[in-house]
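wait is this the right file?? whatever heres the structure
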């Protein structure tokens, strides 16, 4: 396996972080580490024949795409707003739907949507990776659910392939859902309409931290019990917090943790829905 520079050696698949947390029956593929920073990381399907690894750098507010052998594919893409905007209620942005031909059907460019899923007052963007803005809608985001959401049980993707073409659903902060037709279609390698691959159920701030962490949690279902689990790099349990789907924010005191990197996971009895890392720096 080839090395990637001095800032990215190897990173871990998000669904493998919980191997010692939720006791899942899984096989370790590889282990990779972000050097001194905390990154967003996930695989993305930019076309039906191309899967890339996405690494978002929350310090420089850029993201990189790597090939499946971890060699660089597209580097230092500048996002239109910072990934994390601090305030009374922080906004956490994500680059989603990174594809070759979904929004303008020009396969010579790579495009992506950029949104703050947890705060509806931010701007929803569609961007090319060269910095060209293709579309924006202020005070809007792609909803996880709309209509009869049953407390968060019925999850809906912002973009769906339908019998009338591909549709983009944007929820307005002041009310209503705008429905747009797109020129392309979602790649079919992954079933984007039924899996949880690109859904974000949990965000944390501040990260790094020295005293406390706040978790913003959108429960994947109101039919299961969930637990927020924190372990250290040796897999030792540090905190376990029951999650009530009626509550969306949990603040946990980590002032007694030693400096270092810790792993958090949102788990049900049989499944891990989201994993990540945070850094203690006193």
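ok assuming it is, sequence goes like this
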């Amino acid at each position: 396996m080839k090395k990637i520079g001095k800032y990215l050696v190897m990173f871990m698949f998000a669904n493998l972080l919980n191997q010692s947390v939720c006791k899942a029956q899984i096989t370790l593929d590889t282990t990779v580490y972000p050097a001194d920073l905390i990154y967003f990381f996930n695989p993305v399907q930019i076309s039906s024949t191309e899967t890339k690894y996405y690494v978002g750098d929350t310090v420089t507010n850029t993201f990189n795409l790597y090939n499946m052998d971890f060699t660089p594919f597209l580097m230092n893409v500048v996002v239109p707003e910072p990934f994390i905007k601090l305030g009374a209620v922080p906004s956490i942005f994500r680059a989603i739907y990174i594809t070759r031909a979904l929004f303008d059907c020009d396969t010579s460019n790579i495009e992506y949507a950029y949104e703050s899923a947890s705060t509806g007052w931010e701007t929803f963007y569609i961007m090319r990776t060269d910095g060209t803005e293709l579309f924006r809608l202020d005070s809007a985001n792609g909803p996880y659910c709309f209509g009869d959401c049953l407390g968060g049980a019925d999850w809906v993707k912002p973009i769906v392939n339908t019998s009338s073409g591909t549709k983009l659903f944007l929820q307005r902060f002041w009310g209503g859902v705008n429905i747009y037709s797109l020129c392309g279609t979602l790649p079919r390698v992954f079933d984007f309409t039924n899996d949880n691959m690109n859904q974000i159920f949990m965000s944390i701030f501040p990260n790094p931290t020295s005293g406390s962490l706040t978790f913003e949690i959108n429960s994947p279902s109101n039919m299961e019990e969930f637990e927020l689990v924190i372990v250290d790099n040796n897999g030792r349990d540090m905190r376990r917090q029951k999650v009530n789907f009626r509550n969306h924010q949990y603040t946990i005191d980590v002032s007694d943790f030693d400096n270092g990197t810790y792993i958090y996971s949102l788990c049900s009895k049989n499944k891990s829905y989201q994993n990540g890392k945070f850094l203690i720096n006193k």
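The longest strand covers residues 39-47. so i think its the right one actually
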